[in-house]
Amino acid sequence: MSTEPAPYAAPDSIAAADPESALKYAIQHIRGDRVEIIEGVITPVSPTWDHEHAAALVREQLEPVLRELGCFAGSGSLDLPGSSNWYVPDLAVVPRSLAKSAGSLVPSQTLLIVEVTSDSNADTDRIVKRRRYGEYGAPLYLLVDRQERACSLFSQPGELGFTRVDGPHAFGTPLRLPKPFDVELDTKDFG
Q1: Residue 16's pLDDT band (boundaries 50, 70, 90)?
Q2: What is the mean pLDDT of residues 62-68?
Q3: Is 166 helix (H, G, I), strand (E, B) or coil?
Q4: Banded model confidence at residue 103, pLDDT cuts 50, 70, 90
Q5: φ, ψ (nearest 5 deg) of residue 108
Q6: How far apart are the C-alpha atoms of 187 and 191, rounded to whole Å?
């Protein structure tokens, strides 16, 4: 009789077939903290109040059109299958039918993704997420760059990211979101 404990074997229901799945499964089960995976690095999501304020201003301006479109704006998780990325955007607009999903969505299922930069993540939002959201088919990506005090709207996603940019526009300059939104955002209080 051996005194050595038996090796732990994960139940079949959570056994991952590959490292990407295992990592994404693990971060979904971290209690109390919101985290994302950016190019394979687990990163805590801890926005400040001024950061949240900018995202809330976008949401408030979109609310009337969201009802008409049958959409919901929130900050649920977005999976980027086939990569070591799992994002929690500051705001994503999705159809209400998809918002009822218990799992994550993919960028192509959104109508708009909004990221608000912080000192700690500005380059990630400007470069990495912009490229990845475009590669994964997000139709629109709004970057609220608080360090540069400007907004940019990226559209026309493709294999190498977005192929069209409208901006940067200094805070205070109205920014029109195209159809299906067809709304002009007031950006003066974003910074």
Answers
A1: low
A2: 95
A3: strand
A4: confident
A5: -65, -15
A6: 8
Identify the domain containing residue 112 by its residue range.
48-185
CB contact at 8 A, 154 and 140:
yes
Residue written as token pair 């192509």: 108
pLDDT band of residue 85 (cuts 50, 70, 90) is: very high
CA distances from 48 to 32, 53, 125, 127, 173 (A): 17, 9, 16, 21, 24
Indicate the pLDDT class of residue 183, thresholds 50, 70 and 90: very high
Are the C-beta atoms of residues 105 and 98 closer than 8 Å to each other?
yes
Taking the C-alpha atoms of residue 33 and residue 168, their distance in angstroms, rounded to an integer, is 32
Amino acid in position 100: K
In a domain, 86, yes or no: yes
Q: What is the mean pLDDT of residues 33-60?
A: 87
CATH number at residue 74: 3.90.1570.10
Decide: 44 and 54 in contact? Cβ < 8 Å. Answer: no
Give yes or no for a contact between 102 and 52, defined as CB atoms under 8 angstroms apart.
no
Task: Find, among 130, 153, 145, 163, the residue nearest to 38 by Cα.
Answer: 130
Q: How many domains does the chain have?
A: 1
